[in-house]
Each structure stands twice: as C-alpha cells, then as structure tokens.
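Technical appendix A lists one of the benchmark inputs used to test multi-chain prediction within the project. The record comprises two sequence entries:
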Amino acid sequence: MSINAKTGPNGAGSNLRRSTDSLIRHSRSHFDAAHFHGLMALYARPSTGRAVVLPHEGERRVVDFVRCSYLGLDNHPKIIDGAIEALVKYGALHWSCARTRLNFAIIGELELALSELFDARVIAFSTVLAANMSALPLIASGHLTGGAKPVIVFDRLAHATLAYHKGTLAGETKVETIEHNDIEALETLCKKHPAVAYICDGVYSMGGCVKLEQLRLLQDRYGLFLYIDDAHGISIFGDNGEGYARSQIGGSLGDRTIIAASLGKGFGASGGLLMLGNDHQEQLFRRFAVAHAFSASLNVAAIGAALASQALHRTPELQNLQLELQSRIALFDCLVPTEQRGSSLPIRTVEIGDELRAIAAARTLLNRGFYTSAIFFPTVRKGRAGLRICPTAGHSEGDITAIGEAIVAVLEEFEQAGVGTNADFKR
Amino acid sequence: MSINAKTGPNGAGSNLRRSTDSLIRHSRSHFDAAHFHGLMALYARPSTGRAVVLPHEGERRVVDFVRCSYLGLDNHPKIIDGAIEALVKYGALHWSCARTRLNFAIIGELELALSELFDARVIAFSTVLAANMSALPLIASGHLTGGAKPVIVFDRLAHATLAYHKGTLAGETKVETIEHNDIEALETLCKKHPAVAYICDGVYSMGGCVKLEQLRLLQDRYGLFLYIDDAHGISIFGDNGEGYARSQIGGSLGDRTIIAASLGKGFGASGGLLMLGNDHQEQLFRRFAVAHAFSASLNVAAIGAALASQALHRTPELQNLQLELQSRIALFDCLVPTEQRGSSLPIRTVEIGDELRAIAAARTLLNRGFYTSAIFFPTVRKGRAGLRICPTAGHSEGDITAIGEAIVAVLEEFEQAGVGTNADFKR
C-alpha cells in the first residue's frame, strides 16, 4: 500500500480546494427548476437556418440562440460533404490507438493545412477539453519555459476545462488565481517570480475578452508565458479566421504563447486544436501530451469536415460571414441593452438577478419560439443569473429583431407584474 | 490577487505530486529513438483487413497490430454506413453547445439503445478521457456515496486518464494509491474508513484485468464503491458485448458501481460512455459532469456509427466475432510465449528489457511487415520495455501465424547476435 506524503510546491499550508460537493449543493435546486421547466437537455432535430424542431414539444419549431456556431457554419453543405467524403474515401471512422502510434494520413493533411492557415504549428485534438488537459501539465513541467517551472496563474474566469486542473498542477508547481483581467496583480507576480505562465480565455464564454496588448507588454518585459483558450474567438476574427487572439499577434507566435481553439463553434466542424510556436513545443506535445498519448484522435468525419471548413476559410465567404455576424450583433445591440453592447464579440448576457426569475424568463422566451441559455451559478455568480444569447451569422435579421423584441417584452412584463430584475432594458 | 491557503483533506504534510518534468526527462531519449526509427506517429491509409499503407515508406503495406479494434469492427461497412446516414439525415456534424442545453435527438436514441443493450443507464461522451474526467470529481463529492466523501483509492496501474486527476481530487477528499490488484490493502482501507471508492481498469491496457469477484465481496461487506474503466473490455465479452466488467455483474448495476467503456476499440465506432446504476446517478451526471456541462458532445458521425454497431451487437455476428477473436488469441499463444498466455484478454506483451533493444525489435518487425507498439517507460516500468501486440478478430490466421513466427525469429536473431533480452521465446 502506498501513500504519498511529501509537501508540494504550494507549501504545507496551501491547497487548491475543489468543491464539487459545494457546487452541487448550491446549484442543484436551480438545475432542477430549469429541468422542470424544460430548459435543459433538449433533444431536437435541425430545421432551416438556426431553427430546431422539438419532438417532445409536439414538433414545435424554435429559433436557437444557444449554439456557438457564430458563423452559422455547422450546417454548411460543403462542410458536411467534406465529412461524408472523408468517410467514403477511408472506409473508416476511427482507429483505436494513440496518436503517438498510428494516424490517418488525412489528419496529417489537416494539421498541415491549419498550420499554414493560422501561421502556427497546429495539433488537432478530439475536443478543446482534451487540448487543455494536455497543455497544462506540460506548461507546469518547465519544459516550455526554459527548464524553470513557472508559477501558473489562472484568470478567475478561465474556462472550467482549464480551472479544473488547478489541483493536479499544484502537485508540480505553484498555482495562483487572480481576479479577472487583473494585469496589475499579474505584473506583481511577474516581478516576484522568474517564470510565470498566465492561463486565460481569448473570448470568455459569458462575454468579455483577454487584454492581449497589455499581456504582450508583460511578455516582452518579464518573459511571461501565455496560454490562451480562444475557442470562442476562432474564425470570427482575422483575415484567415485565425481568431481573436492569433489575429492580434503579428508574425510568428514565438516561444512563449500557445493558443487553444475549437474546430467547432465559429469554425463549423468538430474538435479542438493547439497553435504552437516552434518545433521544440511541437515535439514535446507529440510525445507527451496526455490526450495525444492516451486518448483517441479526432474522428475521420470531423477531420473531413475541418478540411472543408479550412478551405472555405481561404475564400471570400469567410469575410462575408464575419461581416454578417457583426451586422447581426449590431442589430441585436440596437434592440437590447446589455453589458456587452457595442462589443464585436458575439456573446450577449442579460442579467436578471434572481435565479428563478432568469429561469422563468428563459421559459417565456422558449414559449415564444426562442431558445436561450438560462445562466446561473456556477456559470455566473450567485444572484447574478440571467440569459445568454449568441447571435450568429446564420440568423436572419428577422430572427434577431424578433428575439430582441421578445426579450424586451418579457422584461417589461416582469416589471409590470412587480417582478423586479437587474435588467436595464430601456433602450 | 487571491491565493488559496487552506489545508486540504490529505493533511498538511501530504501531497500527490505529479512529475511531468521527471517523466519527460526519463523517457525523452527513448521517444526520440523510437521516432528516429520510424516507429512513432505513423501516418497511413487503410488497406484490406488489418493492413495499412505507409505513404512515407514508399506506399509499403504492413499488417497493423497496434490498434485495439479487437473485433475488427473499425472498418465494418454497416458501421461506416451508419455514420454516413446520420450525417445525411441530420445535415450537420456537431452542435456547439453543452449537452446540458441542446442535443441532437439521435444521441438520445443512442443512449436509450445502449441502456437497453447493456442493462444500465448509459451516457455517451466524446471520449473515455472525458467520461473519466467527469466521473471522478462526482465520486469525490460524496454525492454517489450517500453524502460521505469517500477515500479514493487508485490501483497503481489505473489508466493514465484516471491517474492524471489525483491532484485535483486530493483538493476535495483523501486519495490513496495501492499496488496493482492489492485486495488486501484495499480491504484494510475499507475497514479503516466509512466510505471508500476504488478506481481501476476492467481490462488493463498492458495486459491483466480487475479481480472483480473479490471486489464485489468487499462491496457487499463494506459498501465499497467501484469505478471501473473497461474501455478495453467492451464488446469482446458478454452476450450483448456489455464488456468484461458488466458481464460479470448479474442483474442491475446497483448504486455502488459505475463502468466506463469505449465506443471505439472493440465496439468499432468512436467515443466513450458511462454505465450508471440508477436515476440519482444519471441526474447527477447530466447536471454536473464536467464534460456534459462544459465540453462537446459526440459528433453525429460517431453517434450514427455507434447506433449501427449496437444493432450489430444484437445479431449472431457479435458472438461469431467474439469466438474469432478467441481463436486468433489462442493461435498467437501457440506461437509466442508471453506473460498473458492462455488469457482470454486480447493484449499480449513480449518483454525485452532494454529500451533500445525493444525499439530495435519493433523496427525489425516493421521492416518485415508488422506494426507493433514498442512499449517503454512511462507505459511500463524502466528496464521492462518490450512489444505490445493486439491480435484481433479482423486478423486472418495467416496474419497471426506470420507475426508469431516473425517475433520468435527476431528474438532468436537477437540471441544469436549476443543481444540479451528478457524474452522467453522458447515455445
């Protein structure tokens, strides 16, 4: 029987406590309410445009604003054809072995094409979750920071699939969490420690974005290592759709920046990827990334779809879709005041406050034909519940106008009924 | 700036150190050698049967023994057709949203069908990695063990995608590691603590299996919670292909056993799944599983393939393939003595000892037309390197005979050349 008993690098008194128990106890009733009101775990079939059909609600057709397919590419015929053609050509969907062993040649083609498109060394993963899980321990090892184990600093709002690993990383190096976008706190840590790595999102899933310019200054000054999960930023920014983060970094990525991104979301296929800066990083990942060595590759359908999508990214259609997206966002902003109004990022949140009121608002909208996300703890802070809406290039102007008016109407009805909300819906 | 400074449940002096740095330093040269000799990260196209074509070696055709498609289903026409049909029907590959929100109706159909097939409550995941990452914190929370946070006990050989999370779990509950299949050590912990959860594989990826009967006795006696990653056992055992673990548990799974499995490997599609025992567990997972709430679903091609495969599992073809597999394993065992000889599990390892000799053996076999895994630290202990071979139902008797003879020939040549190995290859 073996028990580890050494003191970790976070010191005898430090700990990065995760409390799944607490999270469950504090949010369960709201999840139950959301489920009860038919807002969670919907099972649907695609309809035209952004609409879906709900078999369990009598085949009712609703317009979806939950999906993050920001350019509306998730039902693009060329991308689906790409998936089908790859399956027909290969006669296989999946090879059960590690990427460190045997790969479909087509995934090599994909990574080469994406590397060229995004001017980085790209490795594809089954999901962004797998990419993040692979990257963080390699950062902790020090092998990406010249042999010195960095202090790993998480932005408080870093995605759940990043924050999850704090405890594991704490067994290897020092881990800190700072307030969202707190550049000052980060600089203090950079002054104090010879090697620091900052873990953040590019575009945050509840709105907002990374302060990349200021981070790059810290990088120049202190050698700060940046790991940016830009899953929500891919395709919607950049001449090649390289994403929110990559498009702000001219030239080579360099040896101190790694960007994760999605092959779903704006990209329109399925899976995840890492953009690496040099050969040393690529070799390290291809040998030691946990998902590369111990988990499954992206399947052939996803690879084929991604190949078709990256081809589309090289045509004028990309820029047209990016502009369409901006146009839909701007139209939404004319109709519904939100904290994100005026931002070019495609996520909008309407804060309502009380969790049950947020759920009621989402249900009312669903009754009126619009599926939105009711968001509450742990996704947002307690008492700051609301709605999350993703306008996309795949929505028509009519869709946007309709939901905008519906949101304002619902909030007005709440007010008239004496149901207070935090929402500022006066245009 | 915030820094956690509380003492965790593993005590002020305890720590579950992960050392990616050490792992890299101790194995890098061997990975480099294996890469140099063209044994790692091969890119290939499918050929007939279990063969693949290597474009980078002049389109040479080799028979693959690395893949874990134990029933040879990964290129079954019905399964590929299932993938294609689902894509055509849905006109979409992937919806970018959490499973807690919007799902393709077809994944609901799949989970229902698998639940019936395996007599459990099944939730599908993009990969087994995602399933494992989702399950472990929920076990740690105590919500699966009647409110009492269990001591989580890892088998030392538990899969890397389980062991990875020890540090994260240690922030929530006590974590221990015991020697492989050390039932006595586990019982000691069961006597000492009111709630214990044991984390192990069903079929281990380097050979061997769980001692399920003895674990079930501990379960009856002490309420031991079992989490079994049976990715390598699925489809190859059980009347319905329910796998090595599930097929040994009669009737309902109950409330103290969760089994993870693959939708790849023996099953022939792509993805992962969890077999849960009751409604309480299922609700918990569908609300709070990290991959369910924060990561992507299995894509439509994988769902369609899995639906076709589960249909095949209900036909006599399943049993025929299971018997073919046993026949190929038995034939291999006639030719090559291994530690696993006589076992019904499909993984065989030939221990050679020295890492560079193992790499040389694998390269020689590849020259002769057989792709095997050169295995070395961290996959196996240092100085215990060797070859891993997966005979499958998709191999012909000729394939098995040829590789068996080739392995023995290579080891004999090594001996004659005065290159010692640990291998006992005298039949």
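Confidence is low (pLDDT under 50) at residues 1-8, 11-15 of chain B. The longest helix of chain B spans residues 316-335. Comparable benchmark entries are summarised in Table A2.
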